[in-house]
Amino acid sequence: MGNALLGTAMHNIEITRGRGVQLARAAGAVAKLIAKEGKSATLRLPSGEVRLVSQNCLATVGQVGNVGVNQKSLGRAGSKCWLGKRPIVRGVVMNPMDHPHGGGEGKAPIGRKKPTTPWGYPALGRRTSKRKKI
């Protein structure tokens, strides 16, 4: 990575030399080299995170292939079934014993101040990881 020019698109990036590739591996993923200082390089990852890695780390120049893999329409429910994907059922249409949003007569509201997961944890809009200081 130390020989790459600023602005280079890359994928399959190591965090620590010799540990194996860990960053930007998914289909269509690409990270951008935005700065180099001393022995470290600054990358903008596909998630938007800006991260420091060692310039000794290995990376592959370019973008990962198979970009549109998730945009292919499967056409019908049976095709998803063949891939082992289960149907997604909304909590509102379940019974109260199956989900905190369940029950009620007709199109009833959730019945709580905020949406929850089936296990009662906060969902939809609640942050799940601590904010990291930069």
From TrEMBL:
* Subcellular localization(s) per the UniProt record: Plastid, Chloroplast
Q: Which GO terms describe its biological process?
A: mitochondrial translation
Q: What sequence ranges are listed for the domain Large ribosomal subunit protein uL2 C-terminal?
A: 1-122
Keywords of the record: Chloroplast, Plastid, Ribonucleoprotein, Ribosomal protein
Q: Under the GO molecular function aspect, what terms does this record hold?
A: RNA binding; structural constituent of ribosome; transferase activity
GO CC terms in record: chloroplast; mitochondrial large ribosomal subunit
Quote the Gene3D superfamilies the UniProt record gives.
Answer: 2.30.30.30, Ribosomal protein L2, domain 3
Q: Where is this region: Disordered?
A: 93-134
Main localization (coarse)? plastid
InterPro entries (alphabetical): Rib_uL2_dom2 (IPR014722), Ribosomal_uL2 (IPR002171), Ribosomal_uL2_bac/org-type (IPR005880), Ribosomal_uL2_C (IPR022669), Ribosomal_uL2_CS (IPR022671), Ribosomal_uL2_dom3 (IPR014726), Translation_prot_SH3-like_sf (IPR008991)
UniProt xrefs under PANTHER family: LARGE RIBOSOMAL SUBUNIT PROTEIN UL2CZ_UL2CY, RIBOSOMAL PROTEIN L2
Family assignment? Belongs to the universal ribosomal protein uL2 family.
Q: Give the protein name, as stated in the record.
A: Large ribosomal subunit protein uL2 C-terminal domain-containing protein
> Which organism is the protein's source?
Triticum turgidum subsp. durum
